Every structure is written in C-alpha cells, then in structure tokens.
C-alpha cells in the first residue's frame, strides 16, 4: 500500500469515527455500527475472491465468531477483548479445517459446499443447550467504558481490518492469491503450494468474519441461529456487487447504501429479502462493475472528453 493510499485511508477512517462520536440517538448509532460490520463482512467475502472463489460459508464464520465471543464472555467470563479475539481465532481455526478439505474443489462446487456448511452449522446451534438452542444467547454486553462509544470502536476496528486486508492484497502474498485466481498452474510451476495458499486466504477471511460476528454479538447483545443463515452471505454478496468488487471501497459503499435503504424499507413493512434480490439483479444489468465501477467510468469519460475538447481548441488555433 503506497503512502498516499495509506494516508487517505486513515483520514477517511478518522472522519467516519468522528461522525460516529456525534451520533447521540441509539438507533442511529446502531445503524452505523451495522453498516461498519456489513462492510467488514463484505470485505472478507471480497478477500476470498482474490483466489477466485465465492465463499458462501462466510455467514457460518460470522456465526462461529459471534457464538465463540458470546460463550467466552457469558459462560467462561473472559474479558471483553479476549472474547472478541477468541471469536476471530475460533472462526479462523474452523476456516483452516474447512478450507483444507473443501478447497480441492472449485467454482460452483465450492460455493454449494459453503452454502451447505452454513446451514449445517446453523442447525447445530439449535441442538446445543448451552448455546441457548433455538432461542440463542442473551446478555452479550460490551464493558461499561465502551457502552456509549461502542459504535466508534466498531467503526474503528472494522476500518483497521479492512485496511490490513488491502495491505495483504498489495503484498507479495496478495499477488500469489491473484495469480492463483488467474492461472493456478503458473503459480504451481514456480514452487508455491497452491492448495495451502488458498487455505491461508480463506482462513484470513474467516478470521475477519469471526471478528465481525463478535462485533455483531456486542452490538445486538442477543444472537440466535436465525441471524446466521445463508441469507447473511447473500446480503454480503449484494453489498459486494452493488458497490463493486474491483476496489476495497466497493463493498464499503455497497454496505453503507444497502443497510441504510434496508432500514428505510422497514418503515414500509420490511421485505428486505426481496429488496436485496432486486438490488443484485438491477446492479448486474445496469452497472456490472457496481457503484465504484460506474464512478471510474464517469471519471474516465470526463477526462477523455476534456482531452478531446482541448485538442479541438488547439487545432482551431
């Protein structure tokens, strides 16, 4: 990551955290925290697309992180920070095992396995009494010193993790991920273990999803199996497609816009599932590269138009 991008990212994150500090209304603060968490989940989903796979098990890793954080805090009575990290590490550990077994498949086969894995994990929650069964877990509260500023913490942590993923993407390791997506045989020919590199990419995405799950538990204070169905992965895919997957800003823009519009749609009687489905269809038809791709296209068109006008004026002179 170059210095210009790094400094711009820190400025944007500081502005977002300052905005979060100004929010006094409880619902507005929670809405911003949900936007940050949604952006983090979508960014984790985008990170795994670097190896060319669509990880529909992302919802399962979010759920594993949420339950691990909730269990660590309410049952084991571990400190807040340790509980949150436990959520990320537990999801990453399961991600390593899941990826080692399933990443021998590709494309739609991997996607379907991820879908099935998410639903199996969700059903397991309902069978474990210590996790609250169908009712879920309650009383997952952040510490008192963060109670009124938890949105600021959620925005800050989400922003830092997204920046770290972008830094990895721009590193040598990130180039290996992209090389596997473009042609894994070329990467294999230079002596890189393609399978374990893909497992590493998935486990990083799982860790981020697990942290997002822990933040979800602390924001909502209550979690249940229904919160972590395959629909969560569908929503994350909508954020990614609507915002654009060619740049890390894309999933952030998509998450902010869709979470806000979804909250508005609740006043019209809900139907957010239909809302997200329509958003994906319209985006793929009208702007295949999402909002960020549309802005890049407009920027390029404007620059080309200016160049043509300048050339025309020079020729007339």
Give a short synopsis of this structure.
It is a multi-pass membrane protein. This protein has 317 residues and is mostly helical. Helix content is 76%, strand content 1%.
Number of domains: 1
Uncertain runs are none
Radius of gyration: 21 Å
What's the helix count? 12
Count of DSSP strands: 2
Please state roughly what percent of the residues sit in beta strands, choosing from under 5%, 5-15%, 15-25%, 25-35%, 35-45% or over 45%: under 5%
Q: What is the end-to-end distance?
A: 44 Å
Strand order of the largest sheet: 1-2
Shape: globular
Helix-strand pattern, N to C?
HHHHHEHHHEHHHH
Structural class: mainly alpha
- Compute the average pLDDT: 87
Provide the helix percentage. Answer: over 70%
Largest sheet: 2 strands, antiparallel
Task: Record the SSE blueprint.
Elements: H1 3-22, H2 26-48, H3 58-74, H4 80-102, H5 107-127, E1 137-138, H6 150-169, H7 172-189, H8 194-220, E2 222-223, H9 230-243, H10 249-265, H11 272-286, H12 290-316
Antiparallel strand pairs: 1-2
Helix pairs in contact: 1-6, 2-6, 2-8, 2-9, 2-10, 3-4, 3-5, 3-8, 4-8, 6-8, 7-8, 9-10, 9-11, 9-12, 10-12
Describe, in plain words, how this protein is organized in 3D.
It is a single chain. By secondary structure, the protein is mainly α. The chain has one domain. Helices cover 76% and strands 1% of the residues. It is built from twelve helices and two strands; from the N terminus they run αααααβαααβαααα. The protein has helices at 3-22, 26-48, 58-74, 80-102, 107-127, 150-169, 172-189, 194-220, 230-243, 249-265, 272-286, 290-316, and strands spanning 137-138, 222-223. Helix 1 (3-22) runs antiparallel to helix 6 and helix 10 crosses helix 12 (290-316). The chain is globular.
């Amino acid at each position: 990551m170059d210095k210009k991008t790094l400094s711009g990212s820190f400025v944007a994150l500081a502005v977002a955290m300052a905005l979060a500090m100004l929010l006094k209304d409880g619902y507005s603060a929670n809405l911003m925290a949900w936007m940050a968490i949604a952006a983090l989940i979508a960014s984790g989903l985008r990170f795994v697309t670097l190896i060319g796979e669509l990880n529909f098990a992302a919802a399962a890793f979010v759920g594993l992180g949420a339950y691990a954080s909730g269990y660590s805090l309410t049952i084991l009575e571990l400190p807040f920070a340790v509980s949150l990290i436990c959520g990320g590490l537990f999801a990453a550990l399961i991600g390593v095992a899941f990826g080692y077994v399933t990443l021998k498949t590709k494309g739609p086969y991997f996607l379907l396995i991820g879908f099935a894995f998410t639903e199996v994990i969700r059903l397991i929650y309902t069978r474990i009494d210590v996790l609250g069964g169908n009712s879920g877990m309650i009383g997952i509260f952040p510490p008192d010193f963060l109670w009124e500023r938890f949105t600021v913490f959620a925005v800050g942590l989400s922003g830092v993790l997204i920046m770290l993923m972008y830094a990895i993407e721009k590193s040598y390791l990130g180039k290996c991920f992209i090389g596997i997506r473009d042609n894994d045989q070329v990467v294999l020919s230079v002596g890189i273990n393609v399978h374990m590199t893909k497992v590493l990419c998935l486990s990083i995405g799982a860790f981020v999803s697990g942290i997002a799950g822990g933040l979800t538990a602390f924001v909502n204070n209550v979690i249940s199996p229904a919160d972590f169905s395959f629909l969560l992965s569908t929503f994350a895919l909508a954020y990614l497609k609507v915002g654009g997957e060619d740049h890390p800003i894309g999933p952030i823009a998509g998450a902010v816009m869709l979470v806000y519009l979804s909250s508005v749609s609740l006043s019209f009687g809900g139907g957010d599932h239909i809302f997200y489905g329509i958003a994906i269809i319209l985006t793929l038809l009208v702007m295949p590269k999402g909002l960020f791709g549309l802005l890049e296209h407009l920027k390029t068109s404007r620059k080309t138009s200016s160049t043509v006008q300048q050339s025309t004026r020079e020729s007339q002179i």
